[in-house]
Design brief:
By secondary structure, the chain is mainly α. Helices cover 64% and strands 1% of the residues. The protein is built from 22 helices and two strands. Strands 1-2 form a two-stranded antiparallel sheet. Helix 20 packs antiparallel against helix 21. The radius of gyration is 30 Å and the shape is elongated. The C terminus is likely disordered.
Length: 481
């Protein structure tokens, strides 16, 4: 995916403005997302109902616990639709097993109770990181958007709970008498098994599934929009996209035409223009461009006046101990559910083992960060071509040849899992994790030199370029670079 193809207006947004953007992305393709949801999630719910048919009161808890699996297919669709490519039903169906199997146990065990689940899911599923790299990436992103991710989780949890209670309350009158509660017997004996019919539990589970189907895709979209906004703020995607579009518009023909017109009209020389131009006015004109517009939102918060406490007001007894007891019981319940789920998965592990499944080879990308790394786009002797470009004064082209050749070697020979959307920092992390120390150290030095020339527009020294050419480690067995 190329940054130029994104269909979302990239700019730094307020957190809840990003959430609204994510919900709008889901509303745009809600029909397709519901169709994919029904084909992937409903079979799993049917299996859960069959396994727990004797204890239907456990179905809502299991459905709630398996939520991290449901979120992956909608995220896969939204991540590609954001770049103008809406995957077809067959494409998504082929990716479905891989999406669910990837990080299966971490998502359902130690990451299940994460309060930034939807915000962290894109970093786990879309960037291709594993192990400690995932934790470091999420920690880096959470410094800017972690608090908003927690607020989104709490807000959507409350929405889901209120919608579930409201749906059950609104449809309770349509239940047959055999499925309705005996309220008098319930409050007198507190015997839930004898006073609550199983049909009532099945009806509550069905209402919960309906609410999850309607709410969960919007929760995924809100987290994905927060993720995009966080990367825009940290990595400056909006500025990078603006420069790329400006570079596209300013073609060679346009530049030649401007120079010709200036020469015909008798434009002053650059030295005279520099003397006459006021630097302050030039800066103000540049800052008036729409790419440098600063978006501000003013909010007002009402703070109530706290009245003075009257000394004659009687003090109520403290009930803090009830909160402590409730918290202890809640965590004991969560621990019991986790233990039960682990035992159930271990006892039924054969259900999750694929039979006869063959792993398809990972398809190496051909373009990374807009740079072509195919073998046809590179010369036979990369080092010699880089030296020739350096001698001709084209420093960026020389380092580009070395950097593209290094990426091509890492992707095609070492099978390093680098994707098209990875940045220079992401590529460096993947190479460092590949384990080849000599190649990784060289790639670290080459990445620093490339970033310095490509983005800071500061050329490296002749000694450093010579060292990069002499230490080139990506050599075939025959000796050719």
């Amino acid at each position: 995916m190329r940054l130029e193809d994104i269909t979302v207006a990239l700019r730094p947004r307020q957190p809840w403005e990003s959430v609204d953007l994510g919900c709008a992305m889901v509303r745009r393709d809600f029909g397709r997302i519901l169709m994919l949801w029904g084909c992937t999630v409903l079979p799993l719910w049917g299996l859960v109902c069959v396994v727990l048919r004797a204890r239907p009161e456990w179905i809502p808890l299991v459905v709630w616990w398996l939520k991290p699996l449901y979120d992956r297919v909608p995220l896969f669709f939204l991540s590609r639709a954001a770049f103008g490519v809406r995957p077809t039903f067959l494409e998504t169906w082929r990716q479905w097993p891989r999406l669910w199997i990837t990080n299966f146990l971490p998502a359902l065990l130690w990451r299940r109770l994460s309060f930034i689940r939807s915000f962290a899911l894109p970093a786990q599923m879309l960037e291709g990181l594993r192990g400690a790299a995932v934790k470091l990436r999420i920690k880096t992103l959470a410094t800017d958007g972690g608090g908003s991710g927690v607020s989104v989780t709490l807000a959507f949890s409350n929405i889901e709970l209120v919608a579930w209670i409201g749906l059950m309350w609104g449809t309770y009158g349509m239940l047959p008498e055999s499925a309705q509660l005996d309220w008098a017997g319930l409050f007198q004996s507190f015997d839930f098994e004898s006073t609550i019919p199983k049909a009532f539990f099945w009806w509550g589970a069905a209402c919960h599934m309906i609410v999850v189907t309607l709410v969960e895709p919007f929760y995924v979209g809100a987290g994905f929009a927060l993720y995009l906004n966080c990367r825009t703020r940290i990595e400056g995607w909006d500025v990078e996209l603006a420069f790329r579009r400006m570079a596209t518009r300013l073609t060679t023909a346009t530049a030649a035409l401007i120079i010709t017109v200036l020469m015909i009209c008798g434009a002053p020389t650059s030295a005279q223009a520099a003397d006459k131009a006021d630097p302050a006015k030039v800066v103000q004109e540049v800052l008036k461009e729409p790419e440098f517009e600063i978006h501000k939102i003013q909010t007002r918060r009402w703070v109530p006046d706290v009245p003075d406490k009257k000394p004659d007001t009687p003090q109520l007894p403290s009930l803090d101990f009830l909160a402590v007891i409730g918290e202890v019981l809640f965590w004991l319940l969560i621990l019991g559910v986790v233990v039960w789920l682990v035992i159930y998965l271990v006892n039924n592990r054969r259900m999750f083992l694929s039979r006869g499944a063959s792993k398809a080879p990972v398809r190496a990308p051909k373009v990374i960060m807009g740079m072509n790394i195919t073998r046809e786009s590179l010369p036979d002797d990369i080092v010699a071509a880089a030296r020739a470009a350096w001698a001709a004064g084209d420093f960026k082209e020389a380092l580009s040849l070395l950097y593209r050749g290094s990426l091509a070697w890492q992707v095609n020979r070492r099978r390093v899992p680098i994707s098209e959307s990875d940045t220079e920092e992401d590529c460096l992390l993947q190479v460092l994790q590949a384990g080849e120390k000599r190649e990784a150290e060289y790639f670290r030095q080459l990445t620093g030199a490339w970033v310095q020339v490509a983005y800071a527009v500061m050329p490296v020294s002749n000694e450093e370029m010579g060292m990069l050419c002499e230490q080139w480690p990506f050599v075939e067995k025959g000796g050719a670079a």
